[in-house]
Design brief:
The complex is a heterodimer of chains A (267) and B (282).
Chain A: H1 7-22, H2 25-31, H3 33-53, E1 57-58, E2 61-62, H4 63-77, H5 83-93, H6 96-101, H7 106-137, H8 145-168, H9 178-190, H10 203-210, H11 219-226, H12 233-261
Helix pairs in contact in A: 1-7, 3-4, 3-7, 4-7, 4-11, 5-8, 7-8, 8-11, 8-12
Chain B: H1 4-41, H2 44-71, H3 80-100, H4 107-112, H5 117-120, H6 126-132, H7 138-153, H8 158-189, H9 193-207, H10 216-222, H11 229-232, H12 234-239, H13 244-269
Helix pairs in contact in B: 2-7, 3-7, 3-8, 8-9, 8-13
Classes of the chains: A mainly alpha (267), B mainly alpha (282).
């Protein structure tokens, strides 16, 4: 707790991460070309689907809304760094020993680093994705939802960090964790609503999805941005806060247990 | 003085030597694969976890397409079964490449970091030696997944199995030699690791979406620059029913990629400059 009493140091950690990320913007833009590719594929897929259905709206989503929904979800998911790679490497190389003896909280340190990295990457992805969206389907549906996007995105990335960290902490017990992260990411793609909005799911899965934390990550911000339902913002933010607190508590317990068990070689 | 008989016997010895060379090469290749597998199996739990998670990873795509086809039963003539067979052909081809020729996707990195030195010093065909010297454990999950999908959704009769085996062969050839071509760019353009990866990623991504959704320029690209169309079209043009023009086109593309890949690699090798990295292979 002593380490949390000085938030200024975390601000500096965030600033340093931002600076180092800004040094690699060009590299990240090249890697973001995948975003263009995937948006093009989804445009083709949904264009064919809408023309096959013969309707301008599917479950309340027009083609334009669907495309902008995908711009937001893909921009968020592709901005997320791999926590498993990071923690796993720290454990394998022994660097984790240095992290643990520093006067900073291990989890908070990674959270600040993660959020700073995500901020730069998300802005770049959003700019690139918006350019593609504008070019392919025209401007996004303008509404109050866009105003709430930054706050819901912050909440979404926080829950994503919590769940990602929970998976990454398993590297204190097992050697390879990236496979588990693969599976987590794919759950986010489907049940989390990255590939299509929850409204298009079969009823049972849709109901199940509403009881899981995955919907709070990309579905909440993207759905709100393209089709805001009045009166839902407060419950969405509350749910994000609830899941962040709940998963955060589990992380704290797992971390305390894992750090006692950890054997570090090298460093 | 050599008699005709003696000449004949010399020729025979030479032929036997060639046959022996091929046999030795085959023995070397299988020994390399066995060692790669033994290395991967060293950490049994990690091995099973990696393979299992890759299968689970692919199953998620079945869930996505399952949800899609429950809502929209047909996609421009493509059914759920076609999409599953497309996944079987793509995951199977990718799996075989990554298991048996695992360095195909890492060629650009090996070239720019000077890691070809160790292969050049060995009396084996360089490209083959490079390609087979690595095995991706997670790709075993992809191949197992492809086989499960074929058994679950495909035609498991003798003819159906032969068609699927042909689809896997063509898909593997396209994957390997497209990656070799993309990796070889490093011989001329310097560090093209990012570009090579993007090209491979484009091939893999396009190969896992039905060709039927692409129109116009996008469709042309899929059958030329990024030949993913030949992989993703397998379910409707080879596995469901044999479309001969498609089969000829896919075979010719695989053959051209194979020849171009080998030619470009050995041309590029003459431009290769060694690094100062010390490497050792047993």
């Amino acid at each position: 707790m002593i380490s949390l009493s000085k938030p200024a140091k975390y601000v500096f950690i965030g600033k340093i991460t931002l600076r180092s990320q800004l040094a690699y913007v060009a590299d990240f833009i090249i890697r973001s070309l995948f975003l263009i590719l995937i948006l093009y594929i989804f445009m083709q897929l949904w264009q064919t689907t809408y023309s096959g259905v013969g309707s301008s709206s599917i479950n309340g989503f027009t083609f334009k809304q669907m495309m902008w929904y995908l711009v937001f979800t893909e921009s968020m998911v592709l901005a997320t760094p791999s926590l498993c790679t990071r923690i796993e490497e720290e454990v394998k190389s022994g660097d984790v020993a240095f992290k643990l003896i520093r006067p900073v909280n291990f989890i908070t340190f990674h959270y600040v680093e993660y959020m700073s990295e995500v901020a730069i990457r998300f802005i770049i992805n959003l700019l690139l994705g918006s350019a593609i969206g504008l070019l392919l389907v025209g401007p996004p549906p303008v509404g109050n939802g866009l105003v709430w996007l930054p706050l819901l995105t912050l909440g979404g990335f926080t829950v994503n960090f919590m769940l990602g960290m929970l998976v990454a902490l398993s590297s204190f017990w097992v050697e390879e964790t990236r496979g588990l992260e693969f599976v987590y990411n794919k759950i986010l793609f489907t049940v989390g609503g990255m590939l299509m909005p929850l409204e298009l799911f079969p009823d049972t899965l849709q109901k199940a999805g509403h009881w899981m934390p995955f919907q709070t990550i990309v579905y909440f911000p993207a759905r709100t941005a393209v089709s805001m339902h009045h009166g839902e913002i407060a419950s969405m933010l509350a749910l994000q806060g609830l899941w962040a607190a709940l998963v955060g508590s589990v992380i704290w317990l797992v971390y305390r247990k894992g750090v006692r068990k950890l054997n570090v070689n090298g460093g | 003085m050599l008699t005709a008989d003696k000449k004949k016997s010399i020729k025979t010895i030479s032929e036997q030597a060639e046959a022996g060379k091929l046999r030795r090469l085959l023995r070397f290749t299988t020994a390399c694969w066995k060692l790669n597998l033994a290395g991967a199996m060293e950490f049994r739990f990690s091995f099973l976890l990696t393979v299992g998670t890759m299968i689970a990873n692919n199953i998620v795509w079945i869930i996505f397409w399952g949800m899609y086809f429950e809502r929209f039963p047909v996609l421009n003539g493509w059914t759920m079964q076609d999409v599953m067979m497309m996944w079987a052909a793509a995951a199977g081809g990718f799996g075989i490449m990554s298991i048996f020729f695992g360095n195909a996707t890492r060629l650009a990195n090996l070239i720019v970091t000077g890691q070809l030195d160790v292969f050049l010093s060995q009396p084996k065909p360089v490209l083959l030696n490079v390609l087979i010297s690595r095995m991706s454990v997670s790709a075993i999950g992809d191949l197992v997944f492809a086989i499960f999908i074929f058994v679950g959704f495909g035609d498991v009769s003798l003819f159906g199995t032969l068609k699927f085996a042909l689809a896997l062969l063509l898909s593997t050839m396209i994957f390997i030699f497209f990656c070799v071509l993309a990796g070889c760019l490093s011989f001329w353009l310097g560090n093209t690791e990012g570009l090579s990866f993007q090209l491979f990623n484009a091939l893999l991504t396009f190969a896992t979406y039905p060709t039927g959704i692409f129109k116009g320029f996008g469709r042309i690209v899929l059958f030329t620059v990024i030949p993913a169309g030949f992989i993703s079209s397998m379910p409707v043009s080879l596995i469901r029913e044999v479309d001969l023009p498609f089969l000829y086109g896919a075979s010719a593309t695989a053959a051209v990629l194979c020849l171009a890949g080998i030619l470009l690699f050995y041309r590029g090798l003459s431009r290769y400059t060694s690094g100062n990295m010390m490497g050792l292979r047993r």
